[in-house]
Amino acid sequence: VYEAPRANYAKSAIDEYTKIVDDDKAQVLSTSWGACEPLVNKAAPGLIASENTVFQQAATEGMSVFAAAGDTGSESCYKSDKSMKQLAVLDPASQPAGTAVGGTDLTALGPPPAETVWNTAKDGAGGGGISSMWKMPPWQTGPGVISKYSTKPCPHTATSYCREVPDVSASAATAHGYLILLGGIWTLYGGTSFAAPLWAALLADIDSQTSPASREGFLDPQLYALPPEDFNKITTGNNDYT
Questions:
Q1: 16: Cβ contacts below 8 Å, ≥ 6 apart
Q2: Is 175 helix (H, G, I), strand (E, B) or coil?
C-alpha cells in the first residue's frame, strides 16, 4: 500500500505513481484516486500528460493498472462541484495505458449473473463516458464500441474517435456491496473504488498461478481481443446520475 498527502493533489498523484512504478515491486496496481478531466486540466495543467508517461512506463515493465471510473455516472465532475453537470470522465481512468473499471448492480449470481447499470440517487452511479483528452486507442475495437454516442473527431486529432470508458466493470452497488473491517467494525461499502481492486485481485490470482509468477501486464489489448461471449453484457439502465 502506497500513501501520499492530500494537500497538493497534482504533486502527490504524480509522485506516488512514480514511486510505485520506479520501485517495480508490484505486478498489479489499483487506484481509486481521481478527478474529472476538466478540473484536472484547470487545476493542474500537464498532470494528465505526466501521468501518461508514468503509466506507459508501468506497461513497459509489465505492470497492470486498474483505475476506478468514478461514482457520479456520466457527470464525473459533479462529486467535486455540484454545479458541474456536464458530461465528463475521470482521470486517470481515461488514461489509455490503464484499464478503467466501472460499476454495476449485481442482483443475481446466476449463471449467467444478472446485472444492470449501477445508478441510485442515494449511493451513486458507475462512472463512464467519452474522454475529452484522449483519442480512441487502436486496441479499443469490438461489437458495440462504436455507437451513436461515440465522438468524432476527438480533440487533438481530426481522424479518430475519442477514448471510451470504462473498459470493464464489476459489482459496485452498496446494496450488494463489500464488507470491510474498519476500526474493528464490519461495514458495507460500494462504489467503483471497490470494483477496481476486485479486478486487480482477480488478475493477481491469475498472475500467481505460475511459478515464478507471470505478468499479464497492460490488459486492455488482451481484453478487447476476447470474443464477446466471454463477457456478461450489460444492456439495461443508464449512468446519467443527475
A1: 2, 3, 4
A2: helix
* pLDDT value at 156 more than 80: no
Q: Is the pLDDT reported for residue 72 higher than 90?
A: yes
Bridge partners (DSSP) listed for residue 67: 31, 100
Region 159-168: what's the mean pLDDT?
Answer: 94
What per-residue confidence (pLDDT) applies to 57? 98
* Pairwise CA distance, residues 163 & 46, whole Å: 19
Whole-number Å distance between alpha carbons of 231 and 112: 10
- pLDDT greater than 80 at residue 213: no
Answer for the pair 167, 220: CB distance below 8 angstroms, yes or no. Answer: yes
| Residues in contact with 95: Cβ distance below 8 Å, sequence separation at least 6, in sequence order | 48, 51, 52, 55, 65, 67, 134
DSSP state letters, 115-165: EEE-EETTTEE---EEEEEEEPPTT--STTTS-TT--SSPTT-SS-PEEEE
